[in-house]
User: What shape does this take?
Amino acid sequence: MKSLLLLVLSVFFFFACNSSSNGPNSSNSCVGEGCEDPGEEPGSSSSNKLSVNGRDIIRNGEKLVLRGMSLYWYQGPWGGGQFGNRFYTEETVRALADNWGANLVRAAIGNVYQNTSDALSVAKNMMDWANNVGIYVIIDNHSHEAHRTAHAAAAHSFFREVSAYVKEKGYTHVIYEIYNEPVCDWDQVNKTACGSTPITSWAIIKEFSEGVINTIRSNDPDGIILVGTPYFSSRIHQVLPNRNLGGPILGQNNIMYVFHYYASESSHMDYQERFKEFYCENFPLFITEWGTTPSSGNGAINMDNNNSWMSLIEGAGISWANWSLSNANESSAALTSVDVNGSTRESGTIVKNWIKELNAGRSVEGVNPVQISCN
Assistant: This one.
């Protein structure tokens, strides 16, 4: 009887141990052709710490590509309480990991100047939830004017506290995006277009960024920091040393530059040349926001343009987050409701399939990785 009992217990523990390996903490870190081992949760494990080498994100000595979704503004121009807030839950983050196959979520928290303490609370929750389900998280200061004096002070305070929390928890899965989309040196009234207002220059962005980077580095000497670039993070070429506009940020490790595009905006197809130039200069790029639609967030989806962009990005091995995981009244929104496990709109159907398949190392129809030729 004892022997039979021991046999039953052994069988039970065998199946319990094996089934646990399929949980969210082990299912979303694996990226690459023919990838089978899902890896460990990023969390506080030193083996999942990220670094930047040349243009690449590196983990455990190998290149890693992150693919996932950006949440909608938590504190947007509507002052909070809009539809975006309802997606800032652990259930949302878990659904991304389990059902979308994402290894990245972007928390577009909003301009932290509006409510720095609330933004910090949201950031801590997002860091914890991403850790719990085993994916990386971008903490994004979703601002168009972060360099302005009062806004910059709030950014320093916010990222000082965020990085202190990272240090306290020993987290290695947190990525800092310190300036989402620099646009114009405008005031609070004019938010429609730059017009006669000067575009925020790379020199101004660089000065702001160097200060915030130093603030973060006082707590987190190695975390990846993402730096916005001029005019909605589209003019990445202005960062390059040959543009004589101040050049890249020097003397800092693990810095990447932000690039945004909207595939169905015809003028954005010209951005591909900037992308190629930046890539060929061996500079690190992270696409923290891109859309399947025109830049307004509305309009028809041009699949030829989308396939062209993703073929280029996959060939370059660049990490990305799609805009947006929400049910906003926009064709760029991925969902039909607040149920992340529910039905998807056209954009969500496309991107969910891409995330799931590409993160599993499988090819997708229409996406044929393009090897960029650098002379």
In short: The chain has one domain: 36-359. Confidence is low (pLDDT under 50) at residues 1-39. The chain has nine helices and eleven strands. Residues 36-359 form a domain with the TIM Barrel fold (CATH 3.20.20.80).
